[in-house]
Amino acid sequence: MYTDLSKESLQKLYRHCKDEYGQYKAGGLALDMSRGKPGADQLDLSMALFNALDPSDYKAGDGTDCRNYGGIDGIPEMKKLFADLMEVRPEEVLVGANASLALMYESVVAYILRGSKGKRKFLCPSPGYDRHFAITEYLGVEMIPIAMTPSGPNMDEVRKYIADPAVAGMWCVPVFSNPQGVVYSDEVIREIAALKPAAEDFRILWDNAYIVHSFEGAPPKVLNLLRECEAQGNGDMALMFTSFSKISFPGAGVSAMAASPSNLAKMRNHLSVQTIGPDKLNQLRHVRFFKDAQGVLEHMKKHGEVLRPKFNIVLDTLDTKLKGKGIGTWLKPKGGYFVAFDSLPGCAKRIVKLCAEAGLILTTAGAAYPHGNDPQDSNIRIAPTFPSLKQLKQAMELFCVAVELAALEKLLNE
Ligand code: PLP
Questions:
Q1: Are residues 335 and 402 in the same domain?
Q2: Is any ligand 1 atom within 6 A of the Cβ of residue 175?
Q3: 66, 283 in Cβ contact below 8 A?
Q4: Residue 282 shares a structural domain with residue 365
Q5: 35 C-alpha vs ligand 1 centroid, how far in Å?
Q6: CATH code of the domain in which 9 resides
Q7: For the sheet containing 328-330, what is the strand order?
Q8: Which of 262, 291, 320 is the last residue of a domain?
Q9: Which residues contact 327 (CB under 8 A, 6 or more apart)?
Q10: Which atom of ligand 1 is nearest to 251's Cα?
Q11: Is 101 a pocket residue for ligand 1 (Cβ < 6 Å)?
Q12: Is 49 within a domain?
């Protein structure tokens, strides 16, 4: 533990670490690991999508001509595929355009803001997904950070805040959360479904972006929020989302939401003001290529094979270089796209800066908190999917040196 060392020992370590850092700086690394993008090797897995339709194949199972306008809800076979993935009924699914984030944005507008007067607030389990927080910030919804635990949001905090009628919703990533890779426990999901918020229009935005994104074993079995909320007599509280962004091609995938009949009617109405309908040819292409939910699971095993060695590099390097030094903590996810690292308080910005000066761009420190404000300045999101194995190894070694250097600077200044 570095905190147990004398000033002299820390000084010695500091000089050594500074030399090492200088070598990395001179090494000319140039790598952007700021976003969780799939690597080209993952994108290659879906190339057959390009040929999944031929010019005679443009009709959906119900005879819909997918070349033409219409079908705000999606074609039946795409609804069925999403229903099987999300474990709901096809009539509970609305298929969106290329990005689930757009459906989430529209949900905040349609369910939370439209027709409501006065201040609206959202609960934001943190660290969380920066683009969720960007939506609520942009739309003028006040954000309340909620602490994350290894089994989901701290429910005592959640219960405290929902007594305020201005608190109208909560962001959740229940499976392999961004950035920690946390999977919500059954107990937490039951507690979420049993909430009795003061706001009648309170909604849980249940972002299942990583629903089948396991790189160790089968995807986790978690309780279905819609069914649990229904059992509590509050089926309208659950809005569930997912997409093919990290299954096929980000930006060229298909998104969906699953919700109660009255929620879906509201969203259909809301969307039909801004679009005559989504890209049904892309839906048909996805159905032809993946066939069914089993096809998606098989495909995701291939993604898992590509990602496992990358996550192993991150976790092994952290273990080898930092374990036992008392200068950082991290969880070991079994899926998703990130590893979240917590440095000593007050060091995250410094670590990200040190890495940037040596050619490694990480996600901005604090990005996983509302307004980019990590009160501890300790959380850093590591996104291992995009670089090659070789680049990642170099990047992680540099990262660990930066963590040590920042920690030693802090300990020597105390
Ligand atoms: N939700 C989470 C938790 C994510 O991490 C991401 C992408 O990183 C998205 C949603 C984006 O999904 P989409 O491309 O469907 O908008």
A1: yes
A2: no
A3: yes
A4: no
A5: 11
A6: 3.90.1150.10
A7: 328-330, 339-343, 379-382
A8: 291
A9: 2, 343, 344, 403, 404, 407
A10: 14
A11: yes
A12: no
- Sign of the C-alpha dihedral computed for residues 155, 160, 164 and 165 taken in this order: positive
Of the residues 258, 291, 324, which one is the last residue of a structural domain? Answer: 291
**Identity (one letter) of the amino acid at 121?**
K
**Does residue 38 fall inside a structural domain?**
no
Residue closest by Cα to atom 6 of ligand 1: 209
Give CA–CA dist 207/215, Å, rounded: 19
- Digitized pLDDT (tens) for each residue of the chain, 414 residues in all: 999 999 999 999 999 999 999 999 998 889 999 989 999 999 999 999 999 999 999 999 999 999 999 899 999 999 999 999 999 999 999 999 999 999 999 999 999 999 888 999 999 999 999 999 999 999 999 999 999 999 999 999 999 999 999 999 999 999 999 999 999 999 999 999 999 999 999 999 999 999 999 999 999 999 999 999 999 999 999 999 999 999 999 999 999 999 999 999 999 999 999 999 999 999 999 999 999 999 999 999 999 999 999 999 999 999 999 999 999 999 999 999 999 999 999 999 999 999 999 999 999 999 999 999 999 999 999 999 999 999 999 999 999 999 999 999 999 998
Spatial separation of the C-alpha atoms in residues 227 and 191, rounded to whole Å: 13
**The two three-digit tokens of residue 351, written as one number:** 């670590």
Tell me if 99 sits within 8 A of 245, measured CB to CB: yes
Mutate to test the pocket of ligand 1, among 108, 136, 178 (most ligand atoms within 8 A of CB): 178
385 Cβ below 6 A of ligand 1: no
Residue 356 tokens, joined: 């940037």
Other Cβ atoms within 10 Å of 229 Cβ, number: 24
